[in-house]
Amino acid sequence: MEYFKSSKNKIPGTSFSEVRDIADEIFRSIKRKSKRTPYVRSKYFNKEKIFLTIFWQHFFEKNERDRIRRLKFYDCAIDLIVRSAKSPISRENFKNKDELLHRFYGISKDGSSFVVQVKENKRTKRKDLVSIYPES
How many domains would you assign to the chain? Predict the structure, then answer.
């Protein structure tokens, strides 16, 4: 397992509103670049689009403490998706056989490790950011 060393620090803050304000600004800057669904282009997937909307749906299903813990790595995760050429650990989704799950591992600038999970539809080749969480 190879770790990508991000040039970004974790988002500072202790309350959800502090962390969310900064993450929202990062998301808005990405969203401004597209007229439709927000996306970033991935170095590993040969500049293919990774869509970001499913992440936010999945994210709001979590409790507030877990949201803060995950959202602190948002900037690092976007940096990993855009700049990393390190191979992820890929496997078939056990819930849906038509999907592949790619897990990328990274380390923030301040030394905290995290995982970014990208879902790929086998048939359409669409890729979506699903989850970001600290590696424990």
Answer: 1
